[in-house]
Fold:
Amino acid sequence: MVTVSAVVALGLTAGCGGGGGADGTGRSGRAGGVRGEGKDARDAVRVLSPAQLKHVELGAREVPGFQIEKAGESAAGGGRPGTDRAPCRPLVDVLGSQPRPRPAASVVNTFAKAGEGLDFEGLMGMIRVSTYARDGAAATLRGLRSAAEACADGFGMRTGEGEPQEFASVRSLPAPELGDEAVAYRLENAAERAPSLITVVRSGSTLAMFFATSLSDPEDVEIPPELVRAQVAKVEGAERKAPTVAPPPGSGGRGRG
Structure:
């Protein structure tokens, strides 16, 4: 079983990341780190209520070969992490338990390969699904794109508990062909061999965020594509039943990159 304490250790001491290639993996190169920017963010979106959001969580054995366990929002560590490089703030925020913009509601689950138990040297990760009011979901993706470009040469941060952490680089990865738009990044930890992978898929006003790391196989670490597909499918199934909400005045488009 994966535990909350295991992912706290994973998250902001081993770099809490998640990644996705064109097939949902994190093993590809630099090109194609964003997808789906061309669809206009000013379109009306479907918004999940906090009650509906609870029904999008993956079950403990819903994805064969993986153990999934409910966790609290503090699974990524307590407090808000900090950085002395302002352009990197969106990346730092997404690694903590208090993301900005603030979601209306979130559900958090941990995952590991079934049978690995509490072995920190294997693949472990976290899935955070958040629903946003107004244009918070699209704004989060815009911030991540900007931060990844500005901080490609790395950045330092402090965890919510005040522990220093240094990333040597931020690499864009091919984003999964899912949702309205998606981004994927690999953060290289300067002190440890374990990289941090981040993949974020936006469907309407909901973000499905995936984080993973592996100490045993840092070169080939990936976020399992079947997990990404299963989670996004549940989000989009719930959104089909949700009401359509017009965007706020002044929300902008995204422009394909």
Summary: Residues 53 and 107 are 7 Å apart (CA to CA). Confidence is low (pLDDT under 50) at residues 1-32, 38-42, 117-121, 251-257. The radius of gyration is 16 Å. The first strand starts at residue 34 and ends at 35.
